[in-house]
Amino acid sequence: MTDAGLGAAMDIRFGASVPEFLEYITDLGLDHVELKREYLQGHPDAPSPERMGELADDYGVSVTYHAPFRDWNLGSFNDASRRASAAQVKATIDDAATAGAGAVVVHGGSVPRRYPEWVRDKARQNALRSLAECAEYAQLVGVPLCLENQPRNASKRRYTETPEELAAVLDDVDVTPEYFGVTLDVGHAKVNDVDWGAFVDRFGDRIRVCHLHDNDGTADQHEPLVDHESVVERVPADYFVFETKSVPDVARSVGAEPSAPDTGPTSDV
Known about the structure:
Blueprint: E1 5-10, H1 18-27, E2 32-36, H2 37-42, H3 49-59, E3 62-66, H4 79-99, E4 104-106, E5 110-112, H5 117-141, E6 145-148, E7 156-158, H6 163-172, E8 180-185, H7 186-191, H8 196-203, E9 207-212, H9 229-234, E10 239-242, H10 247-253
Parallel strand pairs: 1-2, 1-10, 2-3, 3-4, 4-6, 6-8, 8-9, 9-10
Antiparallel strand pairs: 5-7
């Protein structure tokens, strides 16, 4: 979609502040930023949602938020942890609404594969319960929640690795697709040996956000996806987001000379 936003996500490993990063990506011709909750929790100069809305207007970018995915699990079989995780997603939805963001990306939870079947069954039911609560809240607030396809993990069972698994979760959560959509991660599809086009064929316009990165098929490496134009042309998403491990890799993703924003002597990028 030619009128969709194309931008990059802010990773917790980035030393740049949000204004520095916005200056950097807009100089590259990008017009979207995704704010990962971990970055906002970890960076000392993270903007408030109100300030983020002002920055988006100042730089002419659209915004999405990414709900927590570290030290967090919507599908925890510990009910107190499940409730705390859902509360963090709802807080992210509130922040996204305040900032004028177009969507919130969320992972679907996990459980260790080595645990007994009854634990794994409870974990899945807790994941579905959490997603339903959060999606209903997203509908109430008016910001779409978008469930992401995840990479396989040798030790953890995840619920959205294939189009069929993702569809099963969406079907079990009875919330209108307008407010419970899909985030297609093409790198995760590749490392799972799944054609990302199968997600497009299955979910179509329900895909609101698309994460762009690459790997060699052996691990979720989050390398630059230079050949991204075909993805942008085919995927009917509203927002396309480069997910890289470093700021210079954002430039590599668009074929520009790699560099890092001028963040002063304390920069860690």
